[in-house]
Amino acid sequence: MPLNTKRDHLLHLIQSMTRAEKRNFKLYASRYQGDATFVQLFDLLNQMDTYDDKAILDALPISPRNLPNHKRHLYQQLLKSLRLLYIKRDIEIFIHEQIDFARILYSKGMYMQALRTLESVKNKAEAHHQDVLHLEIIEFQKLIEARHITRSRRVANKMEGLLEEASHRSRIAHSSNLFSNFNIQIQGWYIEHGHVKSESEVANVQAFFEAHIPQEHLNGPLTFFEKANLYQGYMWHQYILLNFDDALIYAQRWAALFREDPQMQEKDPTLYIRALYYNMVLHYMLDDAESLRDCLTGFEAFYHGTAPALDATARSTARVYLHLSRLNHAFVSRQYQDGIQLIPTLKKELRLLEAQTDVHRILLFYYKFAYLHFCDGQYEAALDYLNEIIHLKAGSLREDLLHNTRMLHLLCHYELGNYRLLDYLLRAVQRLFAKATDLSPMLARTLRFLAELSNKPLSEHTAAFRQFHAALQPFLHSPFERKAIHYLDVPAWVEGKVGRRMGNA
Asked: Rounded distance, CA 284 to CA 486, Å?
């Protein structure tokens, strides 16, 4: 599992480009009649898998001292060619270009032409919910009207309408900022603290939520992105509280915004992809295999129908979410072999997505690979993936994933009868758990059970499992263990040991 932590930015950009984008760059670069060293540098880097300074200096007439300047120049030219290509696809880039054109016209003293350019693009900004750019256009129009004689006042109510529009858009920009802040703040709470673990934390989350929600703006009409941010904030709030049913309601409303305004699926596909993914996550958390399958089918249809038009960010995000959701469906449907059969393809895909995917996300895939094999009784195969995770630095892992990994590692060794090794590993995990700030009480109790079990003869293990099964019952009914059980279902493992059927995995 190669995980690169440092990559050359220029090579990374070239490797991210499609054939069409590279072809467009070569056409763009053909206009240069003079020094075309940057084109030669592009051709050389385009053939490299890993960056090599020496190979570049050997192949091109560039001194080591000037190489950074040549790379910087090529980087800028690549971005310029991509900008020209994406003007037709990205509405924000197009609007920015038109505003730039208006500024150039204005600087040339052609302020009436600048006004006409701004007026024509303003409608596009409004139609595509580009609230910040819409306000920027209006402010530029006001600047021109204030400094020059444009005869706009001869048109009845034209200036009054512009000023009223400016006030209205200023209010929208302000409230949009508040709603996006609200979404980021609530999501930030989850990133920092995770799910609630006690009633006191429930109160703290509720107080934080009420302190940051823009209550004064809820009663008026909301724009598309205000609603999107509001629904996300509500979803994160309920998700933190482990109220997955309520969180699903807001995730569904978030996705419904795009179905009510289909053009936004094309204009902001990444946000729509995230909405679809969190619907699937919440069906997974609710053990609703049928609804997850329905959502997954819809997600696949959207992805395959739009993939050629998606940019690299949207495409890689969609691929990661698609694969995670397929694995999650294997868990909730208890079709572990179906999930295992996906792994070879997914491993190849992860290598391709490595540059756009953070290390934690890749390790999450490896944990799910291990857990699928564990649920299917393939403990040696599970250990292979768990060892991949453990041998990386712990700093790359979120704490709960690290804890689940180490506990699943212990359970695999127990199943394989590696009791002496288990004694050694237990001490390392005990030290890890002792330092933990976000440890599931169920995992802490399970570690204590394994330590007790290691001191008992094999003949007493069945009785010990029966006693532990009874001890786990409060955790099954605790709302604070709902997510932990989804990612490592210790009660189901214990039920299997006492002769009952394997439960959730």
From this structure: 9
Q: How far apart are CA 125 and CA 131, in angstroms?
A: 7
Other beta carbons within 10 angstroms of residue 169's beta carbon come to 22
pTM for this structure? 0.78
Residue 458 Cα to chain centre, angstroms: 46
Report yes or no: 446 and 407 within 8 Å, Cβ to Cβ: yes
Report helix angle 289-306 to 269-285, nearest 10.
160
354 secondary structure, DSSP code? G
| Percent helix, percent strand, percent coil in the chain, to nearest 5 | 80, 0, 20
The first and second tokens of residue 240, run together, are 């933190």
- Reference 179, options 135, 218, 130, 133; nearest CA is 218
Largest CA distance in the chain: 99
Residue 448 and residue 441: Cα distance in Å, rounded? 11
Cβ atoms of residues 225 and 131 within 8 Å:
yes
pLDDT tens for each residue of 109-151? 888 889 889 988 998 888 888 888 898 998 888 888 877 766 5
pLDDT classification of 376: cutoffs 50, 70, 90: very high
What is the C-alpha to C-alpha distance for residues 503 and 505, in angstroms, rounded to an integer?
7
